[in-house]
Structure formats: structure tokens, C-alpha cells
Design goal:
By secondary structure, this protein is mostly helical. It has 4 helices and no strands. Helix content is 85%, strand content 0%.
């Protein structure tokens, strides 16, 4: 009894390689999305961390070391969103909003004087 042909095995390998690439891309997209969401606010960061923990529990991965490591890495990325750069970005955003409000007030005053 013979096994699959070499061509069939090559096709399977090619498909597995493509699947592996797709999974890596989706994982990277997930990490990037979590990181972006986590920088929005402390509430968003906490919600993302809670969602990761909930998903781990739902999938039943509490004891699997590899998943734990991936979850830890994702959590570290989320916690890192509270870094100095993220805080600086939030301060800059607030400063821009405040300055825009001041400009609006100035325009309103000019209209009322004129």
C-alpha cells in the first residue's frame, strides 16, 4: 500500500505554509489592535486585559504554558500602553483640544465685539 504522491505531499506542505503565514498575520493584527485599543484610555486598557483573560478561560487554556506565555506577552503590551510615550500622546491630545477650545472662544469674543 503506497502513501500519497509526492505532488500531493507538496500541495499539503504549501497549504500548511500558507495557513501558518495567515495565522501569523492574524496574530500580528490582533496584537496591533489590542495595543492600539489599550492606548485609548485606562478603561480601554483594563477592558482589553479583561477580555484576554476571559478568552483564555473560555478556551480552557489556563494550564497550557505556550498559551500562558502568549497571553503574558499580550498583557505586557497592553500594560506597556500606559508607558511614558502613551501618557505623552494623551497629554498632547488634551493640549491640542484645549488650544482649539481657546481659539474658538477667541473667535466668539471677536464676533461679539465686531
Amino acid at each position: 500500500m503506497s502513501g500519497p504522491s509526492e505532488a500531493a505531499l507538496d500541495d499539503i506542505r504549501r497549504r500548511l505554509d500558507q495557513l501558518h503565514t495567515d495565522v501569523q498575520m492574524m496574530t500580528a493584527l490582533g496584537r496591533a489592535t489590542l495595543s492600539a485599543v489599550a492606548t485609548l484610555s485606562d478603561e480601554a486598557r483594563k477592558a482589553a486585559a479583561a477580555a484576554l483573560a476571559e478568552e483564555a478561560a473560555r478556551q480552557g487554556f489556563e494550564g497550557e504554558a505556550e498559551f500562558q506565555a502568549a497571553l503574558f506577552e499580550a498583557s505586557a503590551v497592553i500594560e506597556g500602553a500606559a508607558s511614558a510615550e502613551a501618557r505623552l500622546a494623551r497629554r498632547l491630545e488634551r493640549a491640542l483640544i484645549e488650544r482649539a477650545a481657546e481659539l474658538e472662544e477667541g473667535e466668539t469674543e471677536l464676533r461679539s465685539v465686531g
